[in-house]
């Protein structure tokens, strides 16, 4: 009998231990979710490419430190953004299960987490790598938090246009980590990401239109309607194409990059053309068919990855 009781107690302890482990794993996932890891992936990648194509040499340990600081800084932006936007996140189907609106992480804890990461990333970048890279990282974090999140997002349909500058900084930061300065090429990479952001994000906004309307966020489809949003997507895409070829035009990149850019540009324009010809409600009240916008949003992510990867391959192979 004693052995049976002992076995039962052992099973209870094992079950409690497994439950605790699952709880801790869930909590860890929530803290990671605060960092917006999907967004962070693209930010880190563009920052890494800026570092790889920059002239000069950076010790591997310092290079890893620079990329890590860019990642941590991007994660800090995500955490602070979720803290500030917790009220509208709770209203949108796409975001209502995030850790703060779902009640799994307290707002104050998320803010403290984000601020700590932001300060740490800037200090380490400035001291371990160089002051220029640290200052640019601080500028990008400050721009995303104060200019985009707190000022523009809830006030103007041009929020993503101006705020897109925050997402365009990482390549410049990566370049500065190696060179300690800013040159023409990183500014071109900045411009590519800057003009890529509106068609990328407005494609998302078209099929998430009802969410933004419910949360009273003045995204372009909500304020100006689907027709005007499609027109703006086409306009920015046409400006993006020549910019994507600029690294080749100024002689920084060769044939490999030029071919990759031309192919990806053709695909980008095709996806945009499908969005443009999708005759949705001109007032933007009911977007009945979100398939073209959804496809354009997904392609735009692949587009930027391939474009920047081709630049790195071209430079390293050359």
Can you put this structure into words, describing what you see?
The longest helix is centred in the first third of the chain and has 33 residues, at 2-34. Helix 2 (37-53) runs parallel beside helix 8, helix 2 (37-53) packs parallel to helix 15 (291-317) and helix 9 packs antiparallel against helix 12. With 318 residues, this protein is mainly alpha-helical. The protein has 15 helices and no strands. The chain has helices spanning 2-34, 37-53, 60-84, 86-89, 107-129, 131-152, 159-168, 170-179, 184-207, 209-214, 220-224, 226-244, 246-249, 255-276, 291-317.
Give the full name of the CATH homologous superfamily of the largest domain: UbiA prenyltransferase
So what's the overall shape?
Answer: globular
Largest sheet: none
Overall helicity: over 70%
Would you tell me the overall average pLDDT? 89
The CATH architecture term of the largest domain is Orthogonal Bundle
Q: Let me know the number of strands.
A: 0
The CATH class designation of the largest domain is Mainly Alpha
Estimate nothing, just give the exact number of structural domains.
Answer: 2
Number of helical segments with 4 or more residues: 15
């Amino acid at each position: 009998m004693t052995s049976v009781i002992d076995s039962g107690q052992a099973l209870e302890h094992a079950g409690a231990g497994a439950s605790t482990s699952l709880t801790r794993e869930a909590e860890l996932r929530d803290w990671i979710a605060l960092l917006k890891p999907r967004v962070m992936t693209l930010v880190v990648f563009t920052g890494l490419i800026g570092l790889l194509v920059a002239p000069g040499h950076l010790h591997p340990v310092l290079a890893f430190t620079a990329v890590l600081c860019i990642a941590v800084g991007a994660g800090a932006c995500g955490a602070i953004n979720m803290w500030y936007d917790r009220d509208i996140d709770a209203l949108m189907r796409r975001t209502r299960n995030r850790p703060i609106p779902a009640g799994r992480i307290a707002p104050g804890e998320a803010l403290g987490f984000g601020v700590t990461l932001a300060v740490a990333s800037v200090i380490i970048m400035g001291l371990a790598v160089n002051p220029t890279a640290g200052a640019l990282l601080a500028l990008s974090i400050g721009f995303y938090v104060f200019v985009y999140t707190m000022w523009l997002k809830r006030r103007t349909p041009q929020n993503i246009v101006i705020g897109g500058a925050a997402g365009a900084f990482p390549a410049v930061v990566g370049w500065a980590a190696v060179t300690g300065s800013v040159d023409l090429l990183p500014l071109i990479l900045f411009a590519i990401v800057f003009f890529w952001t509106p068609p990328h994000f407005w494609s998302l906004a078209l099929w998430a239109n009802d969410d933004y309307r419910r949360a009273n966020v003045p995204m372009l489809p909500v304020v100006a309607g689907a027709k005007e949003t499609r027109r703006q997507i086409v306009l920015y895409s046409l400006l993006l194409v020549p910019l994507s070829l600029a690294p080749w035009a100024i002689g920084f990149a060769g044939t490999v990059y030029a071919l990759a850019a031309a192919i990806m540009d053709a695909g980008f324009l095709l996806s945009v053309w499908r969005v443009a010809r999708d005759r949705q409600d001109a007032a933007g009240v009911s977007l009945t068919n979100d398939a073209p916008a959804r496809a354009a949003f997904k392609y735009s992510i692949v587009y930027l990855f391939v474009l920047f990867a081709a630049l790195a391959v071209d430079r390293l192979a050359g």
